Amino acid sequence: MTTMVVGVTEESIKNKMFSEENLKQVNVPEDSVEDFWHVLSSQVKSQIISQFGLGVILDNLGLGGVNDFKDGGEISTVHNAENGVFTDQEHKQRYEKKFNRKDYEGAANTSSKSLTGRRRAVEATTGITKDRYREGPEAYQNVGDMDVDHIVSAKEIHNNNHARLYLTDAERDIMATSDENMAFTDSGINRSKQDKPLMDWADAKNTKDPTKTNAEYYNVDKNNAQALDKAARKSIKHKVLKGAATEAANGAKKVGIQQAKRQVVGILLLEFMNPVITELKNYAASFSTYKGIKARVDGFKCTITRIKMKLAEKLKESKQIIGKIIKGAFEGFTSGVVGSIVTGIINLITTTLKSWGKILQDGITTFFQAVKLWIKNPNHLSKADLFKEVSKMIGSGIAVSASLVMVEKIKEWLAPILGPTNILVDSIATVLGAIIAGLLTALVIYTIDNFAAIVKEVKDFFSTIKYQLTVSKTELETKYREAIKKIDDAYQDVLMSIEKMYSKLDSLSNMVVDFNLPVQVRFDGSIELAKVLDVEDKDIMKNMDDINHYFLD
Question: Has residue 110 got a pLDDT over 60?
Fold first, then answer.
């Protein structure tokens, strides 16, 4: 969409509003912020047009937008579960499920592994089996006098938060009734043990004869029982860890695939949309030079022809483009996996919001790109300059990501005011997000470029402190305040210039669209706005003849 103030197009405004000349017009000292405005007028425009614009498109396609992330990430953690944050409804249901012993009797296992299946298997043969907690002749009993015991009780398995979170109901049932956790034992032992840990029960005093432990009273072989308990717990721990690893792998894979798709679509858009955008931009820039409607239609046809030719040339480069896609998909998948794992680790101790999850993921993706730049160093920069460029890349990437998150927040704020279906919501949010992206990126780059000067100020400050150790406290505080003021001056000037510039532009813009004012006043205001923006005189409409010439010729 092109915004027009009389004869002033958005393109003219974009090219002029951040120029150094405008800085002079608001009477801000130019020497302290010249570098900042240079960054804002050149570097940032490319960030807005490329990174931010592409990011908006990809987010709207459901490829890594803030709404594609979840509070707590894609990997479940007990910390999140304890705070009511789950990756999906299934995890929530099984984590909050109440204990029911029947869920752990082997219904999900093969029929021969269930409690009744094991008993029937013995009954179908000799009817005699060994008590696994005992040794000696008395260990062999009729199966009718024995129970099938969970070595690690079903209740203990259910109360294991990690087991409930990382294993399905069926997986926990199968684990509870596995060979490693099943033991035929005397019915009296099983009823006495109940849900207690085996070795705790064995060492406890017997309720019928307090002079003996349960192991002594029931003639349990403690070494044998301890070995069975250790093996059962080891097996359960292994299966729970395997479930956690599977959970992490699935969550990381999901984010990896999403980021791979984002990279692939981004590459395709850049490769095939750039020629289209460039030609349409050139046509729009020369639109006013065409004489009459026929000339403009012919010019548009020529533009379409050039677009077709450029796209045909791109298709001839399919091998190189496929190579870029494969490499981009791999890098996207890798960064997605790493980002998901890092997010998962953070969620072991604190729950991340989905907005921070996106910023973290985009930051890691940008870090991967920065590492590639560091390794290849295509422009053969010195280590110091290369470090500066890498820092700018990472900082700018995070700034753009944060701006994309702000777009969604702005939409949330505007929706109740303008209505969720109002087309202005998306437009206003995107424009404001682009401005935020530009300002944040400019501040990042400006700070990095001037970091040496800031460090020098700090160094000089500490040198002064060292010298002033012998002077009074009052003098020392004065020197400290002076040094801090020097460090802050540049940033204060930057912020003041931004405020004054936008205040003046806002005043003129409001005058132009204030329909309570006479038409001539608004017309004159639009001309003044164009002049403030330093639009070339030939591009400004000053009278009815200029307007007729622009729209009718």
Answer: yes
